[in-house]
From TrEMBL:
Species, as recorded: Vasconcelosia minhoensis LEGE 07310
UniProt record, GO biological process: amino acid biosynthetic process; aromatic amino acid family biosynthetic process; chorismate biosynthetic process; quinate catabolic process
Matches recorded under Gene3D superfamilies: Dehydroquinase, class II
Lineage: Bacteria, Bacillati, Cyanobacteriota, Cyanophyceae, Nodosilineales
Record PANTHER family: CATABOLIC 3-DEHYDROQUINASE (PTHR21272)
Reaction(s) the record says it catalyses: 3-dehydroquinate = 3-dehydroshikimate + H2O
Cited SUPFAM superfamilies: Type II 3-dehydroquinate dehydratase (SSF52304)
Domain of life: Bacteria
Protein name, per record: 3-dehydroquinate dehydratase
NCBIfam families linked: aroQ (TIGR01088), PRK05395.1-1 (NF003804), PRK05395.1-2 (NF003805), PRK05395.1-3 (NF003806), PRK05395.1-4 (NF003807)
Enzyme Commission numbers on file: 4.2.1.10
Residues binding substrate, per UniProt: N74, H80, D87, L101, S102, R111
Family the entry assigns: Belongs to the type-II 3-dehydroquinase family.
Cross-referenced Pfam families: DHquinase_II
Length: 151
């Protein structure tokens, strides 16, 4: 069975209340419940964690080494600012998929750049909560295609 780390960055704990026109009406609990159901169908287990603190997210990424086979991450605003999260993902060398509820490339110019994308196997954005579903599917597919790593 695959073991995956799901990380939610800053302010995602406010989903459902925070700018619903941008981020939708679903709460983080709603998204996590859907991810758990999907993971069960995919024969995967999830460790799900949210933090508003960059260092805490870095610690979780580092701790994922030897525990998980991949990472699904919505770094929130840290997407555009965190070299530390980027370096942690690079250091653990686990396949990582970056997801965003909104299309970051259609938003303010400062949101167009991702420090995470160059160290991720892919980025999915703009599909609301479905970005997570698509990201989890993509990550599991990617992991099962790796012939040198039994899963």
């Amino acid at each position: 069975m695959l073991s995956l780390l799901v990380l939610h960055g800053p302010n995602l704990n406010l989903l459902g209340r925070r700018e619903p026109g941008v981020y939708g009406l679903l709460t983080l609990d709603d998204i996590n419940t859907a991810l758990r159901s999907q993971a069960e169908r995919l024969n995967a287990q999830l460790e799900i964690f949210q933090s508003n603190h960059e260092g805490t997210l870095v610690d979780r990424i580092q701790a994922s080494l030897d525990l998980h086979q991949g990472i699904l991450i919505n770094p929130g605003a840290y997407t555009h600012t965190s070299v530390a999260i980027r370096d942690a993902i690079s250091a653990v060398a686990l396949p990582t998929v970056e997801v965003h509820l909104s299309n970051i490339h259609q938003r303010e110019t400062f949101r167009h750049h991702s420090y995470i994308a160059p160290v991720a196997v892919g980025q999915i954005c703009g599909f609301g909560a479905d970005s997570y579903r698509l990201g989890l599917d993509a990550l599991v597919t990617q992991l099962r295609r790796q012939p040198d790593k039994p899963v």
